[in-house]
C-alpha cells in the first residue's frame, strides 16, 4: 500500500514536470523602446521634445531624460529585461527600431524625422539579453534598402516594422516593389500601421490606406497589421472592416492585438475583434509597451465589464506585461492568440534556415 502511494506521488511529480516544460510563455511582438541620443545614435526631434507627450512617455517608459543623460540610453534595456524576467506570462519581447524619413531620391530628411532608433542600436544592445528579439525598421526609399534588409536579417531580425504615417512614404510608390520582394525572399514579416497614428506629435494621413496592403500581400509577404487596424476609415468604411475582408482573402495577413486596451484611443475594440472567431488563427499577441501602462490601459477602466473588485485586484498587478496579459485574458482573448506570435515568428525564422 505504501509502495502504491509512493508510485502515485512519483507519477504526479513527473506529470507536473512534464506539464511545466510544455508551458511555454508568450512572445510580445510589439514593444517600443525610448532613447534620446545619450551614448547612442538615437535622435528625437525638437517638435517631439516640445510636445507634452514627451514628458508623459518618459514617465510611462520609466526612463527620464536626466537618467539617460547620466547612464546612457542603454539603461532602458536593463530596466525592461528585469521586468520581462519577472513576468509570469511573457518571456520575450520584440523591440522595435524606427528608421529615419527618406525622400524618393534616397536622401535622409532629418527635419521630417520625429525620432530615430537605429537598427544597430537595437541589434547590438540586445545581444547580452535572452529576453529580447530584434524588430528592425528599414525605410523603403533608402538607396541601400535591400542591402539593409539583408543586414538586419543576418543580425537576427524577426520582423520589419514600418509606420507610413510617420515615416512618410506611400506603399503604392514603385520603389516598394523590390523591397517587398526582398522581404518575401528573406521570410521577414512586415509589421505595419494602416490607420492614423496618434502616439506622436504629428502624423501624415494620406499614405496609410489599408487597401494598399494588397501590394505586399499579393507578393506573398507575411503582413501583420498593427493594432488590428482599429482606428480610422477609408472611403467611408472602417479600416477594421477592410482588414477583416482581406484577412479572409489572404492567409498571409495577420494582426496584432497590441494597444487594444488603451482607453483613450481604442476602447472597446478588443471585443469587436474577438467577435470574428474565423480570424483567430491570424491574430497574435502584442502589448504596445509602454502604452500598456497603468495610465493608458488600466484594468480599472474595464470595471463595468470585469466587476469593480476584479478590476481593482487586477490593477494591483505591478508587472506591466502580466497586467496586459491578464486583462486581455479576462476580456476573452483565448490562449491560442497568445501562442500565435511565437508560432508565426519562429516559423518565419525556421523557413530561412
Ligand atoms: Zn506601437
Characterise the protein shown here.
This protein is α/β, with parallel strands linked by helices and 353 residues long. It has a single domain (26-350), classed as TIM Barrel, CATH 3.20.20. Helices cover 44% and strands 12% of the residues. The chain is built from 18 helices and twelve strands. It has helices spanning 2-22, 46-50, 52-61, 65-71, 75-86, 119-125, 145-154, 164-167, 175-185, 214-218, 239-249, 263-266, 269-274, 294-297, 303-306, 308-315, 320-330, 335-350, and strands spanning 26-31, 43-44, 90-96, 115-116, 132-136, 157-162, 190-192, 223-225, 233-234, 237-238, 253-256, 283-284. An eight-stranded parallel beta sheet has the order 1-3-5-6-7-8-11-12, with helices on both faces. Strand 9 (233-234) and strand 10 form a beta hairpin. The chain is globular and about 80 Å long. Mean pLDDT is 88; it is low at 17-21 and 201-207. The structure holds zinc ion.
